[in-house]
Write a structure and sequence with these properties.
The complex is a heterodimer of chains A (268) and B (304).
Chain A: H1 3-34, H2 36-39, H3 41-62, E1 64-65, E2 68-69, H4 70-100, H5 104-108, H6 114-143, H7 151-175, H8 179-195, H9 208-214, H10 218-231, H11 238-261
Antiparallel strand pairs in A: 1-2
Chain B: E1 2-12, E2 18-28, E3 32-36, H1 43-50, E4 58-63, E5 66-67, H2 72-77, E6 79-82, H3 94-104, H4 109-122, H5 138-150, E7 156-160, H6 168-183, E8 187-191, H7 195-201, E9 204-209, E10 212-218, H8 219-224, E11 228-235, E12 249-252, E13 257-263, H9 268-277, E14 282-287, H10 291-300
Parallel strand pairs in B: 3-8, 3-9, 6-7, 7-8
Antiparallel strand pairs in B: 1-2, 1-4, 4-5, 9-10, 11-13, 11-14, 12-13
Helix pairs in contact in B: 3-4, 7-10
Classes of the chains: A mainly alpha (268), B alpha/beta (304).
């Protein structure tokens, strides 16, 4: 095959992939913006309640955590909690909805490769996560002043966490057969992991056994890395946190592509 | 060149159901091919495998000599599918559905919008283009799926019962549209339960039964195999006895109607004369059934 033919073929493929990716992302953005009352408003209200109850009402009695005012201490964790639940929820509901209504077939019969389908849905989830993160951050400012210790660390942790939970949502979407299946993981896995992931406390306060056990919770690494980006304090070594997040991302990408290649839950 | 080549295709579902048994089939470029079969014969599985929505257990499928597994991108770009059931996003507008579909085939937005506008006009959906798709009538939904399947100018079009549940007027319009499409060079594979539709549109026919292809021939050749015809005769007045009519078999329906079955090419004038002699005046006469329908029932034993 001549260089020219190879180049034309590559150019053709990359054009198809780019337009296809752009289409999926635009469709995803339109979807969650169209139903903003269901996608953007609830996290704003829920997180305001967290700040009101845990920050103002209870927080004043707690005083400081790791030498920081309690309201400021929990703020990064609450923002991260909103990002995690919304990225996961966005991808799982959108992908399962497409399967349920069968319009996922529009993409499956097209030349769009699996990796572009995955990238499109994940990007959609990341966009919603970031938007919700910005909304919750703006709400946080009504309750406590926020200083950012390191913007690059904060941004990279948000993006990586959103990517990871979008991938997890995608896997849930692949295997879900009914609406119950998309609610089970957030209720019985995601919520406990988030609440026990150091959002409201430092794991230094826990007895040794529970502290050690907490270290197997991946959410702990994300919350602490994000907290470090904001406050400069963390229960976990930053490099260790990034290594855990990136490792999980690579593993989930591999699993997503494997499940799609094997057509689990997508093709009869 | 073959538009579609299927070699030794087999499909066994996870629950053990054998849907396709060693199916081999060739559809020539430019054909209008009818894929017929009773319910559960394997038609939808076959269409599903060609369109990559069902995985095959073994065998090979090629579209214009491109293996669908080895070069899936190229193979799929030549294929358009109109599925049996509605499978578009019910919350999107018609033009969103078409433009998004074009995007999955790498068609830039500007070009996609022009194509979408053309197809919406062509399929008489222009007025509804900004409507949410779930508000469309059944016939409109079918036409929308046809427009969607054509957005990337496929060379091979799969129509899986495209006129099911559509009124006769729209069905005829759709037939004209398919005929024009086929004469402009698009190869079409049609599955339908309306056998007069297949007879009217298709030049070739394949019949699948129990997961195997039992007939693969031209429509003319298949119809020529039919060597007897049945007619329903309506009498002007009530009759009491029916006469012997030579080689024709006679079956009473009620005291005003009866059915005759004759060898193909039998002179019907002789039969009318015999009836007239017996004092039976015939008011009107019609074919008992569609020719293809009768053959289909004979071949698949669906009437048993």
């Amino acid at each position: 095959m001549s260089k020219n033919v190879l180049y034309t073929s590559w150019a053709k493929h990359s054009k198809l992939w780019f337009i296809s990716f752009q289409t999926i992302v635009t469709k995803e953005l339109n979807r969650f913006l169209r139903i903003w009352l269901q996608t953007l408003l609830p996290p704003a209200i829920t997180m305001s309640l967290y700040f009101l109850i845990f920050g103002s009402v209870i927080g004043d009695r707690i005083g400081e955590m790791s030498g920081i005012n309690y309201m400021s201490y929990i703020a990064p964790g609450i923002i991260m909690m909103a990002i995690i639940t919304n990225t996961y929820g966005n991808v799982v509901s959108s992908f399962f909805g497409a399967k349920f209504q069968r319009h996922i077939e529009e993409i499956l019969v097209s030349p769009t490769p699996n990796i572009i389908i995955l990238a499109g849905y994940v990007t959609g989830g990341v966009c919603r996560g970031i938007l919700v993160g910005l909304i919750v951050t703006a709400i946080t400012l009504f309750f406590t002043p926020l200083k950012i210790y390191s913007l690059p660390i904060s941004i990279s942790v948000v993006v990586l966490t959103a990517v990871l939970f979008s991938l997890l949502g995608f896997i849930n979407g692949i295997f879900a057969k009914k609406f119950d299946d998309i609610a089970i993981v957030p209720t019985f896995v995601l919520t406990p992991l988030t609440y026990l992931g150091g959002v409201f406390y430092s794991i230094d306060l826990l007895p040794p056994f529970w502290k050690e056990l907490s270290l197997i919770n991946p959410v702990l690494y994300m919350v602490n890395a994000f907290r470090f980006g904001f406050l400069g304090v963390s229960d976990i070594d930053l490099m260790q946190a990034f290594a855990v997040i990136v490792t999980f991302i690579l593993l989930m990408i591999f699993l997503c592509l494997y499940f799609m290649k094997k057509s689990f839950g997508l093709r009869a | 060149m073959n538009a579609l080549t299927i070699e030794s295709l087999e499909k066994i579902y996870q629950n053990g159901t054998i849907a396709l048994k060693n199916v081999s089939l060739k559809v020539d470029d430019g054909d209008f091919f009818a894929l017929l079969g009773p319910n559960g014969a394997g038609k939808s599985t076959l269409i599903g495998i060609i369109s990559s929505l069902v995985t095959k257990t073994s065998g090979r499928v090629s579209i214009f000599d491109i293996n669908i597994n080895e070069s899936f991108g190229l193979a799929r770009s030549m294929l358009g599918i109109v599925p049996q059931e509605v499978n578009f996003n019910q919350f999107e507008t018609l033009d969103e559905i078409l433009i998004n579909q074009a995007g999955y085939y790498g068609i830039p937005r500007k070009e996609a919008t022009e194509k979408s506008n053309y197809l919406l006009k062509k399929l008489k959906l222009w007025k509804q283009r900004k409507d949410i798709s779930r508000t469309l009538s059944g016939g409109m939904k079918r036409r929308l799926m046809i427009a969607r399947a054509l957005i990337h100018d496929p060379k091979l079009l799969l129509l899986d019962e495209p006129t099911a549940g559509v009124d006769i007027e729209i069905r005829k319009t759709m037939w004209d549209f398919f005929k024009t499409l086929n004469s402009s060079g698009t190869t079409i594979i049609l599955t339908t339960h309306y056998l007069e539709e297949a007879e009217h549109l298709c030049n070739r026919v394949g019949i699948i039964d129990g997961g195997s292809i039992i007939v693969d021939t031209s429509m003319t050749e298949l119809l020529s195999k039919r060597n007897s015809e049945s007619f329903i005769l309506d009498c002007a007045e009530k009759y009491t006895d029916l006469p012997e009519l030579g080689s024709a078999s006679v079956l009473a329906i009620d005291d005003l109607r009866f059915e005759i079955t004759v060898e193909k090419g039998t002179d019907l004038n002789g039969i009318f004369k015999e009836l007239s002699k017996s004092g039976i005046d015939i008011k009107s006469m019609r074919n008992k059934g569609n020719r293809l329908e009768t053959l289909f029932l004979d071949l698949t034993g669906s009437y048993e």
